[in-house]
Design brief:
There is one protein chain. The protein is α/β, with parallel strands linked by helices. About 40% of the residues lie in helices and about 15% in strands. The chain is globular, with a radius of gyration of 19 Å.
Length: about 325
């Protein structure tokens, strides 16, 4: 994200020597979903599907395309079928101007990525909440943590996670007062063990934040990169995972369009009710980054929507 000390387009390269990518059990996402649907039908249960009105797209995916032509890009997302988006800033507009562009396209920004001020600044956070309400957000999500700015390396000092947890609770309390649902979005960095022990940063954050104030937006790609099975996360945090980033992984542990890679999304979404899921957000971090072109981001958005619309599990 633009507000983070390390951009997400460089994050994968930085992560590769730090964490080995997990070996997933299935060679493609679509095949096991079809198998699960057939098994469910044979057992008398109708297969489940992702509700179309809960499919969203993270606009970070289209950052270059939006910068080139905001109105046309938003209109194309609506033509694909999206009714909701998650923003990552306002593309050089004010909150009111960005809301007007969304309204013109027939879209709602139900969610937005906004960094909690570090060090904590309640006044600055309240301004962010005011903007979120102008844009029409239901959710506001802290997007990035885990790199030590002094070293550029993953944080391994648990005290920093304890401090962040306190700030997340503060941010969540103010968000709740403003009528917003505050969440935390992970990368792989939170799954690094802290203080030489077995406890990870994610363990600290989830234990020390109030579930009534801080929900979880699980990025499925980065969870796998951190060797965390999303199904295990769901079972550990029942009812708390309200949003997921639907981002696929290729055989080199890099990004691919949803449904074209290794992640078995159907297996994960079978636990949607247990998780508390209300938004399925398509994302690809490198869409539009060379050698890909900005227009490729729209292809990713189209492929992601079609995949989720067709998926049965």
């Amino acid at each position: 994200m633009p507000s983070s000390p390390v951009s997400r387009r460089n994050l994968l390269a930085a992560a590769t020597p730090l964490l080995a990518a997990p070996l997933l059990a299935t060679p493609a996402a679509a095949a096991p979903a079809a198998g699960n649907a057939a098994d469910a039908a044979a057992g008398g249960r109708r297969p489940s599907r992702v509700p179309l009105d809960r499919i969203s797209v993270q606009l970070y995916t289209l950052r270059d395309q939006l910068g080139a032509d905001l109105a046309a890009s938003l209109a194309e997302l609506r033509a694909i079928g999206y009714t909701r988006v998650e923003h990552a800033g306002f593309v050089g507009r004010t909150a009111a101007q960005f809301r007007a562009a969304l309204d013109a396209a027939g879209l709602k920004a139900t969610s937005g990525h906004v960094a909690v001020p570090q060090p904590w600044d309640a006044t600055a956070w309240q301004r962010a909440l005011d903007d979120a309400n102008i844009v029409g957000n239901r959710f506001i999500v802290h997007p990035f943590f885990g790199i030590d700015p002094a070293t550029g390396q993953p944080i391994r000092d648990g005290a920093k996670y304890h401090a962040l947890a306190r700030d997340l609770n503060r941010a969540g309390a103010l968000a709740k007062r403003a009528g917003l649902d505050f969440g935390y979005h992970n990368h792989q960095l939170e799954f690094v063990r802290q203080d030489g022990g077995s406890r990870t940063g994610y363990d600290i954050l989830t234990a020390e934040t109030d579930p009534d104030l801080v929900h979880l937006e699980v990025d499925l790609f980065w969870a796998w990169r951190g060797t965390a099975d999303p199904v295990d996360l769901i079972q550990r945090h029942r009812g708390r995972i309200r949003q997921v980033h639907v981002k696929d992984m290729d055989t080199a542990a890099s990004f691919s369009d949803p449904g074209s890679g290794l992640i078995d999304f159907g297996r994960i979404f079978q636990h949607a009710r247990e998780a508390g899921l209300v938004e399925y957000i398509v994302e690809r971090d490198d869409a539009g980054t060379p050698p890909r072109t900005p227009a490729d981001a729209l292809t990713t958005a189209r492929n992601g929507y079609r995949y989720l619309a067709d998926l049965r599990f």
